[in-house]
C-alpha cells in the first residue's frame, strides 16, 4: 500500500513537470527553417492561464492567439479567429530546453519540428 502511494505521487510529479515544461516561449532555430520557404522563424508562447501566442516571422510578422489544452502528449490549439480553427500537435519529446512535435492536422506537414526554449 505504501509503495503504491509513493508510486502515485511520483507519477503525478512527472505529469506535473511535463505541463510546467510547456510554459514559456519556444522558437525554431533559423538554420532548421530552410525546409519551409519564406518562414524565417516560428515561435509559440504557452502561458500558465491556458492561452498561447503563435508568431510567424516572414518579411512581416503574423501573430495568432488562442487557447491550448495539453493532455496525453497532445497539444490542442484553438485559435481566436473567425473560423475557430483547431490544430493538434503530437509531442514527441519535451524538456526544459526544447519541444519536438508533429502536426496532426490535415493542412500541415507531418515532419518533426523542433522548437527551442527562449531565455527571456
Secondary structural class: alpha+beta
Judging from the principal axes of the Cα atoms, what is the shape? globular
The string of secondary-structure elements, in order, is HEEEEEEEE
Which parts are unreliable, with pLDDT below 50 for 5 consecutive residues or more?
4-17
The count of strands amounts to 8
Q: What is the overall pLDDT average?
A: 78
Task: Write down the Rg.
Answer: 16 Å
**Distance linking N and C termini:** 44 Å
User: What is the tally of helical segments?
Assistant: 1
- What composes the largest sheet? 8 strands, antiparallel, barrel
Strand order of the largest sheet: 1-2-3-4-5-6-7-8
Query: How large is the share of residues in beta strands?
Result: over 45%
Q: Helical amount among residues, as a percent range?
A: 10-25%
Give a summary of the structure in a few sentences.
This protein is α+β, with helices and mostly antiparallel strands and 120 residues long.
Give a description of the structure.
This protein is an alpha+beta fold and 120 residues long. The protein is built from one helix and eight strands, in the order αββββββββ. The chain has one helix at 2-22; strands at residues 24-27, 41-46, 51-57, 61-71, 74-79, 86-94, 98-103, 113-117. Strands 1-2-3-4-5-6-7-8 form an eight-stranded antiparallel barrel. β6 (86-94) and β7 (98-103) form a beta hairpin. It is globular and about 35 Å long.
Amino acid at each position: 500500500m505504501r509503495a503504491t502511494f509513493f508510486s502515485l505521487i511520483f507519477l503525478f510529479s512527472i505529469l506535473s513537470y511535463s505541463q510546467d515544461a510547456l510554459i514559456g516561449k519556444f522558437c525554431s532555430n533559423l538554420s532548421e527553417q530552410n525546409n519551409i520557404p519564406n518562414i524565417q522563424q516560428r515561435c509559440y508562447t504557452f502561458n500558465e492561464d491556458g492561452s498561447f501566442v503563435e508568431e510567424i516571422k516572414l518579411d512581416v510578422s503574423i501573430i495568432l492567439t488562442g487557447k491550448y489544452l495539453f493532455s496525453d502528449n497532445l497539444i490542442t490549439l484553438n485559435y481566436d479567429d473567425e473560423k475557430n480553427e483547431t490544430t493538434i500537435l503530437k509531442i514527441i519529446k519535451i524538456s526544459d530546453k526544447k519541444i519536438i512535435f508533429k502536426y496532426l492536422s490535415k493542412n500541415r506537414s507531418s515532419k518533426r519540428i523542433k522548437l527551442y526554449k527562449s531565455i527571456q
